[in-house]
Amino acid sequence: MLLLPLFLLASSLYAQQGWWLTEPVRWVQTNLREPDAALDPQRLVEQTAAFHANVLHFSMGGIVAFYPSKLPYHNPSPQLPKQGDLLADLLRAAHARHIRVVGRFDFSKTVKRIHDEHPEWFFRTASGQPVVYNGLYSTCINGGYYRSYAMRILEDALDRYDVDGLFFNMFGNQSTNYSGQFVGHCHCDSCRRKYRAMYGKDLPEQMDDQYREFLAACSREVAAEIGKLIHRKRPHAGYFNYMQQFTDGIMSESNTAVNRPLPLWPYSASDNVNRALNSEPSKLPVNLDMQFIDFPWRFATVPAGEIELRSWQNVAHGGALTLALNGTFDQQDRQAVERARPIFGWVAAHEQYYVGQESAARVLLLGVRGQNQSAYRGLFRLLTEEHIPFAVSDNLDWIGKRAFDLVLTAGRAPAGLRPYLEQGGRLLIATPQPPDFPVARIVRTWPNTQAYMRLRDRTLFPSLDLTSILMLQGDYTELESSASPALTFIPPSMFG
């Protein structure tokens, strides 16, 4: 299971980088409930060590503080012990066992008292109402809580606690709640002013591409400020969230939901880690292996084999080995914990192979926006199941830095690919969408086609020696060809 042919073990490349790139990472998240504030930190650290994890992702603050915060608009758990400091005790015990601690913050919601004192900090629907879920009020990425007070909370926490990293959950405004109900986009005064300043017009009635661009830009602004604060206060600490910009690690999740359309995507972890590692090779991919089935069933475990599959995919593609738990190791459904335990032990015993990995693939699959997801996943499956090592990237930063024998895309072929092609690169476009640079004259596009392709050059397709035709379904763009094509189009004919 070492999969060494897929990687170059480039430890020297990361000699000056943070611990997340110079050390093997076996990461367990404990997403704490309020009653867990009364836990025994020494016992949790001992359980983490026995599990062979070396990073403990521990709830720290935001919605609920798991340390005795004295700030008026930060809400300590009422379950915290009256004496002592849970987080300080946990950090001391973890560092004594050489376990890194990454604190978890979530500034997306807070309690009614804070809303009532500062309503201008919060998300407002189109009708001007706050968004409330289980008694918690949603904040706005452009309001004073995210933009100012959250920074005060972080500065206080970083002054007090020598954490090894910080993670931020639910970053930015969410258009649906945990029950999947649509709440729309924020219409608070801060959003109105900022949108008008950027675009010279009022907020749109419905979310459109320009509004999504606006929201992404606002999230990046806050992310940048958080990154500056962390690196100023704790230069050794890593910064993690679900964004690529300004962070030291790229977070993602392999998860399930009961109403998600089938079939289940079996390569979720491979996809997330491969894309992160090859799109941003200077950052650690951390794909959280989520133990629960869906939000209403946070303590019921997905099939144990799913946990195992994601675990091996995470490490095989060069990411952190992870397990995300709701609560602590003391689960009522222990299937996920016990299936992951021997994997963590095995990877710990061979940890020298699981640090500083780079993909050695010579085939690149572009993961560009707006592509046909089914076509992308089809190519991903084809390459995986034919055991062809491949890298996924959602940008073109690799051009001129890394050689590939073949690039595939199931979406746009951007104009930025021209230098790669002019240097002799090969590109396979599996989409009816013409590339953003001239290739050949387009004859026509055949929509919703049910037809065939005819094989003309068998030397290119030795595995297809028993057939002359291939099924074709979907849109097809016909190009004019001056040479003898290897494949030709058989237009649709009558059937039935």
* C-alpha Rg (nearest Å): 25 Å
Instruction: Specify the structural class.
Output: alpha/beta
On the 0 to 100 scale, the average pLDDT is: 93
How many β-strand runs?
22
Name the poorly predicted regions.
1-16
What topology, given as strand order, has the largest sheet?
A: 11-10-9-8-4-3-2-14
- Percentage of residues in DSSP E strands: 15-25%
Alpha-carbon distance between the two ends? 50 Å
Q: How large is the count of helical segments?
A: 12
| Largest sheet, strands/sense/barrel | 8 strands, parallel
Shape: globular
Describe the model.
- By secondary structure, the chain is α/β, with parallel strands linked by helices.
- It is built from 12 helices and 22 strands.
- The chain has helices spanning 19-22, 41-50, 86-96, 112-117, 144-160, 189-199, 209-233, 268-279, 304-316, 335-349, 373-385, 418-422, and strands spanning 7-9, 26-31, 55-62, 100-106, 109-110, 132-133, 136-138, 165-168, 238-241, 249-254, 284-289, 292-294, 297-301, 321-326, 357-359, 363-366, 390-393, 406-409, 427-429, 442-455, 469-479, 487-490.
- The strands form 6 sheets. Strands 11-10-9-8-4-3-2-14 form an 8-stranded parallel beta sheet. A 4-stranded parallel beta sheet has the order 17-16-18-19. It has a 3-stranded antiparallel beta sheet with strand order 5-7-6.
- Strand 3, helix 3 (86-96) and strand 4 form a beta-alpha-beta unit.
- Helix 2 runs parallel beside helix 3 and helix 5 (144-160) runs parallel beside helix 7 (209-233).
- The protein is globular and about 80 Å long.
- 36% of the residues are buried.
- Mean pLDDT is 93; it is low at 1-16.
